Structures are given as C-alpha cells and as structure tokens.
Amino acid sequence: MEQCVLVLIANTSVEEPLFDWLLDYSDEMVFSSEVVDCHGIEHTALSLREQVTGRQPKLRVELQVPLAEARALCTALGRAFPAAGIRYWITPVIEVGHLGGAGAGTGSEPAPAGG
Going by fewer Cβ within 10 Å, which terminus of the chain is more open, N or C? Predict the structure, then answer.
C-alpha cells in the first residue's frame, strides 16, 4: 500500500465545512492544517490589502493516506465542493516513523512508507 501526502489549498472561508466533511469521510483519518500566505495569485482575485502585501491567506490541509484513497478523496471533494476552487497535489512518502518515546535509542529503523 503506497503511502502519499495529499495537500489541499483552499480559501479560509471553507475551513469549518471542509474539516467537518473530512471528519465525516473517515473516522480514522488524521490531518493537520494551518493558514498560510499564498503568493502569485491573480490580482483580480485579491483585496486591496492583499494586492499591497502581495499575499492572500489560504488554508493548507495535509493528510497521509494510501495513494488510491488520496485520489478517491480528491474526486469526492470535487463533488462536495464544486465551486470552492480547492487546489491539491499528491507526493510520495518515503519513510514514516516516530521520534522519541517507544523505540527511541533502540536502534530500530523507521518503517518504509509502502509497508
């Protein structure tokens, strides 16, 4: 099962509906989120303040999921939020592990992302 990271970039106005949707999609899904500054956005889509600063706040959500699930999630998100303009990209996960805690200092190696 090939693991990947699915990154979603969305308008901050969809934050709560998107979180609710993701939590309803799967009880086992864990994701992180943060508000980030996006640059290079068409000026007509920016407020006057955003035009002056050259950036627009966006919501960035990251999920580590199997590749097939990431693709299914993107399809389902497109149906659930057709007008939201959510951008995404998918990147492979090379390695997964935990730092500190159980197994720390035992010489154990992190698990490969695919297994």
Answer: C
